Amino acid sequence: MQLYMQWSSGPKYQVDAGRGDQYVVDLDNHTCSCRKWDLSGIPCAHGIATIHYKGGTPVEDYVHSYYSKDSYMTLYNNLIMPINGSQLWEKTNQTAIKPPAYTRQPGRLRKLGRQGMRMRCSICGSSGHNKTTHHRNLPQKEKPLSRGKGRPRKIPNQDPAVASDKANSYKS
What we know:
Layout: E1 4-9, E2 12-18, E3 21-26, E4 31-32, H1 36-40, H2 45-54, H3 69-75, H4 160-171
Antiparallel strand pairs: 1-2, 2-3, 3-4
Protein name: SWIM-type domain-containing protein
InterPro entries: Znf_PMZ, Znf_SWIM
Pfam families: SWIM
């Protein structure tokens, strides 16, 4: 995709994406009129092209701060606590939790098919194929040497004297 940038005013740029598509990118507000940058917080293709066109600052400075490692660490600082394996859990006198009772869903039952049955051919009696696919399991026939299509070729290493004698015999 070929993008053409044009400075408009201040931090705003107009990006021509071809086929009549034009977008306005505002680098100070971290927005693009395609709205991908606004929704995700990560610069869209138009924004990245404009950042490279302007130069100076890396693209990572335009990514929203909630994608940074610091915000990730503060978010999960107290939430993910380590736990012991199930063999070290405290034993209680409570009854074990059981899954809920199964209730059959309404509707017609599905046919399970013929699982566990072997296919047997009604023509030859062997297993592994049926009457429909019997012809695929026959042994290969030896193909006879086929003659080429069209007119037979002249033999290139033929003696010219013999060839002229044959040609004279046809004329007379």
